[in-house]
Design brief:
mainly alpha; 2 strands
Length: 51
């Protein structure tokens, strides 16, 4: 399955923001194991750098 990973999901995962960390962690884990094929929008990386 192909998914577009939102910037907020990445921030939730990196910053361990509750109550969303568990769901973000599951998405990241599935992307890393190849169960999901995760993509980010072109503006996600600059937004993360800015934040």
């Amino acid at each position: 399955m192909v998914v577009l990973v939102d910037t907020n999901v990445i921030i939730d995962f990196l910053a361990t923001r509750e109550p969303f960390y568990q769901a973000a962690s599951q998405v990241m884990e599935k992307c890393s194991t190849g169960e999901l094929q995760g993509y980010v929008a072109f503006h996600t990386i600059p937004n993360l750098w800015y934040i």
